[in-house]
Specification:
single chain; 112 residues; alpha+beta; four-stranded mixed beta sheet; 4 strands
Amino acid sequence: MEKRYRLRDDELFQRVKREGRSWPHFLLVLCVLPNGLDHSRFGFSVSKRVGNAVVRNRVKRLLREAGRPRHEAISPGQDVVFIARRPIRGASFQEVDRAVEQLLRKAGLLTE
């Protein structure tokens, strides 16, 4: 994912979590906040409670891969943060992909 499509600053993550709207799922939580830009930005948050560094990196890779093909279909001007929950540790890619799809639809972000 290109740099301009990524949320990297902790302050931005906190703002999206604090001021944005959220949708829960068993595996993760989706937080969304309008950003006023002509493109949407993505962030992925995986805390130490989910697992060690190897597990956290695997979860982030799964979330990025699940979000990548949907990036173009998401309505522009949104900051989107996915927050992993502990049960995601044992989830397959198909389960994570399905969860991302469901949350984006529930939030009304997919333009398709």
